[in-house]
Amino acid sequence: MADLATLQQVLGISFSDLSLLERALVHSSYTNENPGLAPDSNERLEFLGDAVLDLVIAEKLYRDFPQFTEGKMTKLRAALVRQDTLVHMARAISLGDYLYLGRGEEASGGRDKPTNLADALEAVVAAIFLDQGLNTTTDVILRLFNVELVKVISHGTGVDYKSQLQELIQTRQDQVPVYHLVEAVGPDHDRRFTVEVRVDDTVLGKGSGKSKKRAETEAARLALERLSTNFT
């Protein structure tokens, strides 16, 4: 396990209550194997961090880009808080090195699993929020997301994967992709949805997210990747 002092240095803050940061790094597999050592996983913090991220990014877009419509801001925010972006941010600060994992999760490559990294980053955001308040949390988020924010804004709009996929399928096959909910797991406060996008009986992509909309977007993105690979 890496030294949490290094992670704090990377984040640019010093926790008053270090147990919050520690809890943000605890995967449920670790609590299952070590209930006495770590009674709480990072799942509740992850739930809070997701909301804090949405708020900070939404406020940034609202204040800095008064010319953007509600629809455009929604697309930009979705592009910034999607799993791929969170995973990229988590890897940039080597967050996987700090995770507390159960033996099975460790053996299966859990330190670099996209879901684990994205969830842990959201949990760390929540830990900072609870320990340092919204102003400091905002500073950390905007510093971490600065490059991605500039990249997304420079493109003018967020990427609408579902619309792109529909246009592609209609052009090639004169059909419309259909989204099917495969499963919804977890407690009400931390639900995770898995959705498949299909044409007839062919599954083009499968995505997961904290809402059906996010899961559909991820499924569409993966479908576009697959179709691009197959047809180029």
CATH topology name of the largest domain, in short, is Ribonuclease iii, N-terminal Endonuclease Domain, Chain A
Sheet/helix structural class: mainly alpha
Rg, nearest Å: 19 Å
Give the tally of structural domains.
2
The named CATH superfamily of the largest domain: Ribonuclease III domain
What are the secondary-structure elements, in order, as H or E?
A: HHHHHHHHHHHEEEH
Tell how many strands the DSSP assignment holds.
3
**Number of helical stretches of at least 4 residues:** 12
Level-1 CATH class name of the largest domain? Mainly Alpha
Straight-line N-to-C gap: 43 Å
- The portion of residues assigned to helices is 55-70%
Secondary structure layout plus pairing:
Layout: H1 4-11, H2 18-24, H3 28-33, H4 43-64, H5 70-81, H6 83-92, H7 103-107, H8 114-132, H9 134-144, H10 146-154, H11 161-173, E1 178-185, E2 192-199, E3 202-209, H12 212-230
Antiparallel strand pairs: 1-2, 2-3
Helix pairs in contact: 2-8, 4-5, 4-8, 4-9, 6-8, 8-9, 9-10, 11-12
